Amino acid sequence: MVSRADRGRVADWFWTIDRYFLFVFVLLMGIGFMLSFAASPAVAERIGASEFHFVTKHAEFLLPALMVMIGVSFMTPKTVRRTAVIMLIVSLTLMVLVLFIGVEVKGSRRWISLGPLGIQASEFMKPAFIVVCAWLFAEHQKQPEIPGNLFAILLYGIVVALLVAEPDLGQTILTTSVWGGMFFMAGMPWLWITLMAVFAVGGLTSAYILLPHVAARIDKFLTGEGDTFQVDTARQAIFRGGWFGQGPGEGQMKKIIPDAHTDFVFSVAAEEFGIIFCMALVALFAFIVMRGLSIAYREKDPFNRFAISGLVLQFGIQSFINVGVNLELLPAKGMTLPFISYGGSSMIAICITAGFILALTRHRPETRSRERSLFSIAHGHPAE
């Protein structure tokens, strides 16, 4: 057991970390690993791989991802900012390269091969983009002469342009939603907010007109006509599960659901473990968002406030999109369920996001005490 009297770095981390966040993040990782046993063997069989191919791969990513999350949680807010800047530069560079040398999958170029590794650069861009924009919004709020808001808008334009070029409409919508929430929290004038809303509507309309696959998905969602096999099968799996599920390993729809281990793992969970289990899973994601926003509301530092809010919004909105598609409440769109879906890039990237949240929400009484002491000395009062 680590003593409170021990002021080493590990002891300091242990006593200052938000244990609720840490527990929920690790719990979700465990649930994701458990569901990989339920969802992935059928997919592996369809592609001719060994039964536990994806389970093994999931396990291989799990420990490094956990280590990344814990390592990042040791950072100070200043280190978080610097790390995010480097991550953003690297990920944007890779997103440019992926347009020319990326691997094309289903008509989109989102992956780039670096030796034996396949990396989806946009996954790593998201947390870095949120932190850097939070920094820009905060600097403008503290020093209005710094055009932080303008830089955040320009950066958003660059990111969206690269996502559209891949194309990746789902990540574009996610990034826009999170950035829009931070934009609103930063206290932007209503005129700017209205202009951004008009821009978002115009972007969606243009995507519908110019991108046939986007129009097809929206039309299928609105009319129910055409190839709706994925969402229909996912919905049937949820109905079959009922309140308490068919039991572990007893699901049948996973054998025919495409991407059962990634985009539609929620439906597999519903069939085998039931609606109550899925409601508990949704409650965990809601807890992350609500606790994060509650902590951000009490934060005095604007950077911490914006960054925490943006990072937990990413969790919430990404989860909402994935679950909404599974429940046929949203048009079909590939979007992983954080910590739950299979995927190396998404797992590592979401653990970086979680690590940022843990780092920024740590209690720092010594820092606050030092700040009060310096304030007292500066004003001629004895330090407490």
Automatic annotation (TrEMBL):
Q: Which residues form the signal peptide?
A: none
> What GO terms in the biological process aspect are recorded for it?
cell division
Task: Provide the catalytic activity annotation.
Answer: [GlcNAc-(1->4)-Mur2Ac(oyl-L-Ala-gamma-D-Glu-L-Lys-D-Ala-D-Ala)](n)-di-trans,octa-cis-undecaprenyl diphosphate + beta-D-GlcNAc-(1->4)-Mur2Ac(oyl-L-Ala-gamma-D-Glu-L-Lys-D-Ala-D-Ala)-di-trans,octa-cis-undecaprenyl diphosphate = [GlcNAc-(1->4)-Mur2Ac(oyl-L-Ala-gamma-D-Glu-L-Lys-D-Ala-D-Ala)](n+1)-di-trans,octa-cis-undecaprenyl diphosphate + di-trans,octa-cis-undecaprenyl diphosphate + H(+)
UniProt-listed Enzyme Commission number(s): 2.4.99.28
Please give the superkingdom of this protein's source: Bacteria
Where do the TM regions start and end? 20-40, 61-77, 83-105, 150-169, 273-294, 306-327, 339-360
For membrane topology, the record states: Multi-pass membrane protein
Determine if Glycosyltransferase is one of this entry's keywords. Answer: yes
Q: Its pathway?
A: Cell wall biogenesis; peptidoglycan biosynthesis
**What Pfam families would the database entry show?**
FTSW_RODA_SPOVE (PF01098)
Query: Which keywords, in A-to-Z order, does the entry hold?
Result: Cell cycle, Cell division, Cell membrane, Cell shape, Cell wall biogenesis/degradation, Glycosyltransferase, Membrane, Peptidoglycan synthesis, Transferase, Transmembrane, Transmembrane helix
**Location(s) in or outside the cell:** Cell membrane
Q: Cross-referenced InterPro entries, in alphabetical order?
A: FtsW, FtsW/RodA
User: What family does the Swiss-Prot or TrEMBL record give for this protein?
Assistant: Belongs to the SEDS family. FtsW subfamily.
Q: Which PANTHER family match?
A: CELL CYCLE PROTEIN (PTHR30474), PEPTIDOGLYCAN GLYCOSYLTRANSFERASE FTSW-RELATED (PTHR30474:SF2)
Instruction: State the protein's name.
Output: Probable peptidoglycan glycosyltransferase FtsW
